[in-house]
């Protein structure tokens, strides 16, 4: 079996191999390095709000309060439990966190370059296990992504190229390690890739070790299989996915002491495939009634699912008009991420505060009494953005939010700065117009208003200035014939002009 890779107190490297078709061999034996890197510690936010500051304190107190608390109680209190294989056994196992902590895992298939908001729930649940003193493993499915999980899908996923998969694995492992370390430190975190064990496993080995312990009748009874067979059907490749995920659980148990798998409610069939395979491979079909001393029960694996992230109207939370709400900054700006959360409906915000943040429940109860003034939405957006993008990302989001607010200053009395203008443009918050420097510096401001499209004529531009609606770098322009100077240009290339409180254009000097 190929060596596994982990992220503990430092970054380490594992080997990843290509995944060939089942017709010839389950997997090939060639491999390449997979760096598991993490984001560096971010700087403190330079911009904040009173609600986000207070919620940060609440988050800290919530984390402190979990010391010595049974994680099952914590998850239940926050609505993060859908089902468990055996709640009494799970609760008993979790109660010994200080002397014998559990090792828990959640899997993430790299089907895209970035995780999305729906994936965040699994990371948050792992983080609660961390905060309650347990060890966590985030498994990137570098191998299983080549097969595709049929759960919750009406059609087979498209096949990704090896290059795309490699890029996806690198991005997702980096995100997983960064978020889990941000949540609970480095000592009890591992990030693994299941290509580590599948990379050197042949088809015959898989059939002999896994296939002979699988029962087709049980596999056919899984909801993910029945639903697809009632529709357009499914390929053999997808049909075997539950065996691959089940074997992941077995390997993680054998090599890393993992005894609990968590996942969304649509993963119940795959999770129980793992607990069943572990029982068959390690315990056999012995009845637990014969386990007088409890030794056999102590060896059983546990499964826990949490509800999928849905809005009150039943639609998926984490989808916007532009597509998925991605977690990586290069896929979605912190500003757009923050704004999506800030627009959460009153009917959903309290439930999402419980499930997506670490804010203390007493504070959430207080926020529930303030619905209508958006304080709860501000806390939700601030806490989740800080968790995903760090203090620096939250500061960026708040700064752009302030800049985009009608009639608001961006950076105090001094106006705007270049980084904020670029962030506004990146977030799609204002159009960009290229104007020759010779048509700006030393020229009347009203000329730029016309060229930027904020006034149809110089006469209209003069009336805008006279009426107090003309703005330059968020300052009101009071002189009808104000002449633009070098000092008005930001970073020697940018300026912002505005008409009224809402219309803003960023001018790029060429």
Automatic annotation (TrEMBL):
Residues 443-504 form the Tyrosine--tRNA ligase SYY-like C-terminal domain. It catalyses: tRNA(Tyr) + L-tyrosine + ATP = L-tyrosyl-tRNA(Tyr) + AMP + diphosphate + H(+). GO terms for molecular function: ATP binding; RNA binding; tyrosine-tRNA ligase activity. One of its GO terms (biological process) is tyrosyl-tRNA aminoacylation. InterPro entries: aa-tRNA-synth_I_CS (IPR001412), aa-tRNA-synth_Ic (IPR002305), Rossmann-like_a/b/a_fold (IPR014729), S4_RNA-bd_sf (IPR036986), SYY-like_C (IPR054608), Tyr-tRNA-ligase (IPR002307), Tyr-tRNA-ligase_bac-type (IPR024088), Tyr-tRNA-ligase_bac_1 (IPR024107). It comes from the Eukaryota. Residues 36-63 are annotated as: Disordered. PROSITE patterns: AA_TRNA_LIGASE_I (PS00178), S4 (PS50889). Signal peptide: none annotated. NCBIfam families: tyrS. Belongs to the class-I aminoacyl-tRNA synthetase family. This is Tyrosine--tRNA ligase. It comes from Pycnococcus provasolii.
